[in-house]
Design brief:
- The protein is α/β, with parallel strands linked by helices and 174 residues long.
- The protein has one domain: Flavodoxin domain (Rossmann fold).
- It contains 6 helices and 4 strands, in the order H-H-E-H-E-H-E-E-H-H.
- Strand 1, helix 3 and strand 2 form a beta-alpha-beta unit.
- 35% of the residues are buried.
- The structure holds flavin mononucleotide.
- The site of flavin mononucleotide has 11 residues, from helix 5.
């Protein structure tokens, strides 16, 4: 999904993929001295104008791996790397609902992170193996069209939020 997003994003967008591999289990005893991979994660989030979350659905929610990374990102108190960021969410799952429940759980978590996700369009790739070619390329035309549209909307949303931040004296996420 993320590789398809790189391919379909508007020309002015630079979309970099951050792999959550290597982020250890969150431990509140060490939240003030985070491991290097967590510091890298948080600084990349901070530098980004916007965030695109891509997730599968695990047992009607997001994977623990993603929740764990979000927990690092929002801590310690007063050091929320996500604060005020515009975002969009995409999901793909083997089931018929395309990860819809994972997306709504993620939206709930994003309230706490003070992230502002795009509401419309919503992009769910259901029965995921059918939408992707063997080497992982997203080939379902409807999904590609929806993903392209979502990325266009995310760009407009990011520009709008930045303008609001500037008129209030600080850009979102700063
Ligand atoms: C622990 C676990 C729970 C899962 N639960 C769901 C689920 O609730 N709904 C669903 O559609 N797919 C579920 N799946 C399948 C994932 O969506 C699927 O593994 C994911 O889309 C990645 O697809 P891939 O293995 O083809 O890369 C689950 C997978 C795992 C490992």
């Amino acid at each position: 999904m993320l590789r398809a997003a790189q391919e379909l994003a508007p020309a002015e967008v630079e979309l970099t993929i951050f792999d959550l591999d290597g982020i250890p289990l969150f431990n509140q005893d060490t939240e003030n001295q985070p491991p290097p991979r967590v510091s890298e994660f948080k600084s990349k989030i901070r530098r980004a104008d916007a965030i695109l979350f891509s997730t599968p659905q695990y047992s009607k929610s997001i994977p623990g791996v993603l929740k764990n990374a979000l927990d690092w990102g929002v801590r310690p108190e007063g050091d929320n790397a996500f604060d005020g960021k515009p975002a969009a969410i995409v999901s793909a799952s083997t089931g018929r609902f395309g990860g819809a429940l994972a997306q709504y759980h993620l939206r709930q978590i994003l309230v706490d992170l003070n992230v502002h996700p795009v509401n419309d369009p919503e992009v769910f790739v259901s029965m995921a193996p059918r939408g992707f070619a063997a080497e992982g390329k997203l080939i379902d035309e409807d999904s590609r069209r929806q993903l392209r549209r979502l990325l266009e909307v995310l760009v407009g949303w990011t520009i709008r939020l930045k303008a609001v931040g500037q008129s209030e004296g600080s850009a979102p996420g700063e």
